[in-house]
Amino acid sequence: MSTPSNLRHTQTARPTSPHTPQQPSRSGNTSFASTTSPGSTFRNEDDAIIFELGARWLRAGFEGNGTPFCVVGFGPEESRRVGDYRGWIQGAAGNGPLPKPVNAEDWVRDYELWQPDLRKVDLGLLEDKIERLFRETYNQYLLTDAGSSRLVLTLPSLMPHPLLSSLLSTLFSRWRFPSITLLPSATMSATAAGLRSALVVDIGWAETTATGLYEYREITTKRSTRAMKSTQQELGRLLSRLASGEDHETEAKDDGISVGFAYCEEIITRFAWCKPRANDGEQRELELPAHTVLIPSPTNPAQDFVDVPFSRLAEPVETVLLATGTPESELDDEEKSIPQLVYNTLLALPPDARGTCMSRIVFVGGGARIPGLRQRILQEVSSLIERYGWSSIRGKAVERQRQRMEDLRISSQTNGQKPKPTSENGETPAKDEKTDPSQEVPEIDFVEQKLHRQNKDIPVPIQGVLREVESLGAWAGASLVTSLKLRGMVEIEREKFLQHGLAGATRDSEPSVPDRRSGLRAGDRSSWTLAGWA
Amino acid sequence: MSRPFPYTYISCPCADTPVLDPARKRRSRESPQKPPPERDTEANEGQDDAKQPANKDDEEDEEDEEQTFDPRSPRSNFSLYPPEQLLYCEDCHQIKCPRCITEEIVSWYCPNCLFETPSSMVRSDGGRCGRNCFNCPVCTAPLAVSTIENVTGNGNGQGPWVLSCGYCLWTTLDIGIKFDKPTNIRSQLQKMTDSTTGPAFDARSRQGSRAFGDLKSPLSNFASVDEQANPSERDAEQSTSKEDQTPTPHLGAEARFAALKNFYRTQISETSNSPSDSLGSEFGFSSPGALNRLMSLYASSSRLSGLYGGTKKPKSKPPVMREALTATEGLRIASGDADSALVERIASPDCGWDGVASLIQRTEQSPDVRFVDELLPLPVLLRTKRAKRCKSCKHILVKPETKPQSTRFRIRLIALSYIPLPTLRPLAQPSATSVSGLAPTPDLNALTPLRPYHVLLTLKNHMFDPVRITLATPSVTPGIVATKVTVLCPQFEIGANSDVWDEALQNATAPLSDRITGMRGGEKVPEAGKVWEKGRNWTTVVLEVVPGTLPGSQAEDGQEGDSDIAATFQKDEDVLEIPVFVHMEWDAEAQLEQQNVGKASKPDDLVARELAYWMVLGVGRIQASL
After folding, report:
1. Burial class (CB in 10 A: 0-12, 13-18, 19+), A98
2. Any idea which fold A45-74+111-194+472-533 has?
3. B460 C-beta neighbours (distance < 10 Å), count
4. Which of A20, A469, A497 sits opposite B334 (nearest CB)?
5. B323 and chain A in contact, CB less than 8 A
6. What is the CA radius of gyration of chain B?
7. Minimum CA–CA partner of B297 in chain A
8. What pLDDT, in 10s, does the model give residues A237-258?
9. B387 vs A406 pLDDT, higher one
10. Topology classification of domain A195-223+329-409+462-470
11. How far out from the chain centre does Cα B420 lie?
């Protein structure tokens, strides 16, 4: 049924494909069929395999697929001995309550592949875990011989070198991968949203990163430790308090968590949510606390259910990710709330890039799935912009100064200036105009006009408005890029890595940019680089 | 701990050869490759090694030789295997675990219907059964194809068919799916999910193949007709579609991916097709791509002039790749309403805990799924039969027969035919013998601390050569609970795995007294330096074990609640596991290629072989109280 239709499409597609200059640049072993039908029917054996690796989850699949074949999590079950079937006999660990409260850090340790603080990571153990993880993913899900085809890894662009080195040397020494390509996950997420410039906010496990991308280049990255790990720890504390029957008014000192990790994660995936911003959702807030939801009881999740006000399940998100209730001055640089992080990243971008990026905000990562959170972050960011404009100067004196300027301006406006230009961009530039002279009514520029006339056909990109674009995720982006036969900047060949390891990479972080056609000279890449990872 | 007590594990020697990191070798190793012996020192170790001078590293290397195997270290979980799961390479003369072999897939099959899937179909089916085998998305039990009448329970008929779960009673009716015929369910399902996920487009498949074709064809027609006119045409399209962009058609993940891919492909071809691109010099005219491009170049320019009435666009500037602008190109603008609707739905009483898909259910499904009624039946994951090779010498260790139904192997070199099989058994407690004639065996799940136990370790040889064994064990087990262990007879021999009749004949004549003592059992007293029992191809020795006290129990009688110890006291710390180092020596018959060498030294074609490995004996669980 599907085969004839595929053949037909191949024929209709054929006239276009010779136009693509990619044809010669494709590696010789890709068949013609694989380029015309991305559908899987004629897939070549040598399709690259794409892994997206994070601290908690792994996604794996073949290039050209829209969704990964499998999503594999890490937990204590994954690091049991072979032949240890307790997970099956007693039910997975981490569901029931713990015998005694555990420190929040120990609570999560078994469940993460690595931690950002490498002082506590046993790299040997990490290598063991990675080896088993990859082996089992290949054997269970990918169902192909490991090491026979190219491997593409999607990694966060800031990866500790010992980690990267462990990962690569494990993969290279265990299997015969001809080469491993590294792709930055932020850029891939933007690609999977169909964008070239974006602000990618990755609400990940250990940290939230906001990466400003402009034309596929990472310009700035800012990070915050307010991410899913601390959210889950917070929820764990909340549930522990529920379990012990204490009122939530009791001060949350770090008394450990006594509920299972898996149980907590289950609740966070099912019921965590985020309230809309207070001032415009007040009437909704009034009615929502009336709701209670049944969740499995923290003391006996297998049998009992308890009623929990639905609004309390929004608390961890509120206090951790949005840092509600903590004044901004209290926050350290590394633990800014996510709206603050987004704002600061935008602020750090050059104005052009900022305008482009702010209307292309992409949320990825586990936290992006919490309903309401993305909208809330955008609301908070826009209120920040309203309050401060694009200026990083804060403080009372500045405030007074601004007030004085405002007064001056108002008086001058009444003197006969034209009223405030209201642009269709909405509230965002309204404040900017005072501070930023470049945003005032543009004088008529002949060159601009001419350019504009010429480029009439080219649509004007949206910019200057806060807008969120949904992405298919870094894995899909990597799959997309790989299937288009674009070569990554960081392509590590087996022999070269085995000679020198990471130290063999050229230090030049910005090497001669291989444009798309450089695939032709595939063989003569004498030196390799780590590009952003260096 | 993992299996019922007592148990034995063997550590594959490959754990001693850590992953070679070329960079680390160069910089004289920056981080410790071996886990520090004790958990307590781990944190310090990490801090130390930054400032650790090179000589410390060397020291550590020397220590590595001496280091005893610690079954409690988190790394040991990855090197310990039940003896029956290990393989043996006859060329390297080494034990091989799943980490030191490479695997090649021989065949793919569905574990449910046992049909073999040809390799060309595996990936197109997503590594899942392409027939009628499905798992329940809710509870993962296999789904059965049945008629609606069967499910609802009245009569039988031809009627529409559904998939139903026999365990949790989920049926495809719950998600509103019925099948016209009971065969080829997978493709039927695919068609249905296509039409349900994308009402905006007529055809969109989860696999993306058909969707891509359908999306592509209109665009590719444009592209082939006229390259330059195309963008403007599409821009017009965009401007019209921009108005009605707000009700974005909700594309499924696969369809959106296909749309994006299609978009990027056309972008790449458009932007790099301008004549200013000096591509021509880079590949000869021999390639059809180049020729075609040249042809289209002339064609397009002539047609261009026709279209635009001579106002030829200056082509010096290559068109710039742009971003996706419409939903058909894969762009999706998030809307806040969707999220608040989600929140409302989750909070609503008719959804509840069971209405939201669990984490496990979600990981198996497409990434957009959030509620139980969005779950689709899961085609059964295929399994593979794999041949295994030694990683270092590439010799085949295991080769199964291709047919899924066959459980036979063409080649299978399991380690147990080369290394002695260790079995463990507690010896009846001598103190209890006074009560009854038969001594009770101690309860291994509750070993009393500070009380001596005798454990019988039997090693059974499966080789046709007699083996000399040397056992070694640390006198005190590593970890918090210090258990004293003594091997009463560390050196002994195991007979060859000769004909079974030999034993019968031998037993008839010589060791009658031995058998008698064996019968009497309880009266026999373990003696240092003496083998407990010996048979044709097996030997039993006694281990004396004095379990240590648990830190918790110390806190009880001594100073009150030492919380530090309690915190470090891990779940399985009370399990008594004894690391035992096994060194075996035997004289093997020289193999063909070694014969010449062997002849020079030994005239009788025998080669001395040795093998050494760590073994872990799980004796039991230590009681908390004294």
Report:
1. buried
2. Nucleotidyltransferase; domain 5 (3.30.420)
3. 17
4. A469
5. yes
6. 35
7. A19
8. 888 888 777 655 454 455 678 8
9. B387
10. Nucleotidyltransferase; domain 5 (3.30.420)
11. 28
